[in-house]
Amino acid sequence: MTNAIIPNDIINPSAELANYKLVWNDEFNDPSIDKKKWNIDTNARKDAINTESAVKVENGMLIITTYTESGVHYTGFLHSQGKFEKSNFFMKNRNTIIFITH
Length: 102
Description:
Number of helices: 1
Distance between the termini: 24 Å
Helix content: under 10%
Shape: elongated
Number of strands: 8
Structural class: mainly beta
Strand content: 15-25%
Strand order of the largest sheet: 2-3-7-6
Number of domains: 1
Largest sheet: 4 strands, mixed
């Protein structure tokens, strides 16, 4: 187990964000990806092929999987290019990363 010390302003940056306003969010509460907010890439990327079948929403969580079939690696890739693009922004997210091997 690795312990990390994180400065308090990273854990609770509210003082620095007093002048920011929420302009975009996705809580993934819908049963599928909101395609008004997200593009699901389906191109080859490095050693894998991006596929829509590797991206889903379940119980309020975005799930991106990676798998191999017949020696071909597949993964999911989302982006908001052309739908939401900003500079000078603060992003907050919640992550749980689970690795499952077969």
